Structures are given as C-alpha cells and as structure tokens.
Amino acid sequence: MGFIDRMGPDLARFLPAMLQGLLSGGGAAAARARTMAWITEGKYLGDITWQLGFAKPLDTEMLEAALAAGVTHDNANAVRNCLLAAARQYEAAPGALIETVFLPALRYLSLKSDTAWVRVFAISWMRNPLLLALDAAQAAEVLDALVPYPTLAYGAEHIAGAIATAWPETVITFLGQRQALRDAGDVPEDYTDLPYSVHDLKAPLAASGEALVRAARGWFDTNRMMFQFRGGRLLAAVFPGFPEALGTLLASYVDVGEPDDLAFVLAVLANFEGDRSIHDVVKRIVEKLTPGDKLMVMVKVALSAMGTVRGEYGMMEHYAAQKADLEAWLTNPRERVRTFAADFIRDLDSQIASAQRSAEAEIALRKLSYDEDIGGGDEA
C-alpha cells in the first residue's frame, strides 16, 4: 500500500490491476479501507470503478459508494463505469444492482445527455442478464434513455432486443417515440429512428406481430409521406418474404375497406419488391377500389417495386416477368381484378417496349464508343 501512496501519474493507469491483486490478497482489509478512503475523497474514481467491473468477488458496498462519489464529484466516466460494472456483474448480485447502481447511474448520464455507455468494447449487451431481468417500469426507463441515441444498431439494438424478449410492446412504443423525436426535428442529421435491418429485434417483434402492425397503423397516420420508408420498411425487415402471418394481419385492414387502411397496407406492400407473395392481398385491395381510384397508383407502385436488376435488358426482363404474373389475373372471378390486370398489362407492354429501345440504344452507343461493329457481323 505504501508504494501506491507514492505512485505518480504514470503508474496510476495500472491502478485497476494493482487493486485487483491487493483486494484479493493477504492485505485485503487494509487495501479496502484505503480504497474506500480514496472513494470518499473522489480520488482515482475512474480506475476504481473500472476495476469493480471485473472484481471477484464483487464488493457491492464499494460499488454503491463509488457511484455516489462519482455523482458528487460530477465524474461521468466513473458513473459510466459503475453502470457497466452493474451490468457485467449482475449475476454475482442479482436483483439489487438494478435499483441501487444501474438505474441511478443511467439517470445521471441521461441528464448529461451521455449515451457513451451504449457502445463500449468491454461489455456485450446481447441478451445481457441484467436487461433480461428488468421489470416493465425499469425496461421503459432504459428505453427512454435510448430514444436520443443516433442509431438502432450494434449495442443499441442489442439493448432493445434483450428488453423485447420480455416487453415487446414497450419496445414497440419506444420505436414510435424515436420516430416522433425525428419528426420533431430536434436530432442530429445522422439520427436514424428505425433500423434498416433487424437482428436481435426480429424474433420478439415478429412474435408480437399484431401489436407491431397496430402501432404501424398509427405511425402511418402520423407521417404518411415517410411511412413507406420507415415503418413500412421495418415491417418488411421483421417479416421478410411476406409470411402468411403478416398477410393475415394486413388483410384484416383491407377487409375494413376504409381508404386510409388500404393506403396503409399498400405502403407496407411497397417494401416487398413486387413479390408474388403479396398478390393475394393486392387483389383484395383492387376488389375494394373502383376504376380510376387514386389508390390504384399505389397498387401499381407496390406491384412494380423491384430490387436490383442486372444487364442492359434487366428492366425489360423485370417488366416481362411482371406481365407474365399478371396474365394469370385475367381469369380471376372478380371483375375489378380482371379489369385492373388488363389495364396494367397495357402499361407494361409500353414499358417493355421502352426498356428494350433504351437497352438497344445503350448497347449501340457502347459499341460506337469502343469502335465495335454495331451489326455484330463481318465486313463484306
């Protein structure tokens, strides 16, 4: 201990390792007393709290004292280390650390707009035991702190995903709060309210599909212009390939037949790249619409959505495949479906011809640019 009392700044960075040895050795009582005195004085708080994240056994009294000192001395780094220590050491002291350390540290950091705890190399939030143990109110508090975080990827999605295993509807509410914050405009330019892809969130959200679709219906009313690219895209990420479960949920809105419900469903369907799996729901929508209805444009958008096309004739081949799919609609027993299909096929014929001309012109221009024979034959 005398050596530590005399150490300079250069050696202080090794204090966590030295404390680990001293607190588990023969002089543990003296080392603990000295450490507690430093905590009271606000000395070495960052180092002490970092060591507590790995201490075995965990000294919960020391951790709580260190947190109090970090708050008193306004040491955000120490408070952050206490939060991380509680999460990392939760299984060593289950239950108590949530209310005595984790949440108080979180509240302090939230007041400071400090979200650096979300993504740190020293801990994984994926299915973290502390997060899995949160009750409903605690889960909501953690998610509230996560609303301002710039993106729902990596650590942020791990946190939300762990909470969603027990409290999926709380997470769905949180997703709505992130959209509302973005719409309010009080966020950085790089703020992304919803994830482009989902990993940890996928299974728990899919299992709560009814609640998610119901919330998405509300998101649509709040911001119709952006819903297709936000909430609609999220539904496509949670339900890739348009499974029957999603089709059934959306069909219930189609059956109501209100224009806003139909527009909502079409905005979701536009994220499935015109896949044949959406055709049954689209037909149900067409049956609800009269010829010339403005929603017919959205129907065509949903059916025409595409992924990546390749080659000069990629667009032409895409339109041709669409036409082939729609030709089966011409024998549908519902007149409105047949009429729509015939009209859309005429549009597609024009688009096929236009895409073919564009491809041939592009090929000819390339051959001219590279001094190739446009006709493709030998000179006479």
Q: Which stretches of 5+ consecutive residues score pLDDT under 50?
A: none
Order of helices and strands: HHHHHHHHHHHHHHHHHHHHHH
What portion of residues is helical? 55-70%
How confident is the prediction overall: mean pLDDT?
90
Q: State the distance separating the first and last CA atoms.
A: 99 Å
Tell me about this structure.
It is built from 22 helices and no strands. With 380 residues, the protein is mainly alpha-helical. Helix 17 (244-256) packs parallel to helix 19 and helix 19 (279-288) runs antiparallel to helix 20. The longest helix has 35 residues, at 335-369. The protein starts with a helix and ends in an 11-residue tail after the last helix. The relative contact order is 0.04. The model has no long low-confidence stretch (mean pLDDT 90).
Could you give a quick summary of the protein structure above?
With 380 residues, this protein is mostly helical.
Which properties best describe this structure?
mainly alpha; 22 helices
SSE topology sketch:
Elements: H1 2-6, H2 9-12, H3 15-23, H4 28-41, H5 45-52, H6 60-72, H7 76-88, H8 96-111, H9 129-132, H10 136-146, H11 155-164, H12 168-184, H13 202-207, H14 209-222, H15 224-227, H16 231-238, H17 244-256, H18 259-269, H19 279-288, H20 295-304, H21 314-327, H22 335-369
Helix pairs in contact: 3-5, 4-6, 5-6, 5-7, 6-7, 6-8, 7-8, 8-10, 11-12, 12-14, 17-19, 18-20, 19-20, 21-22
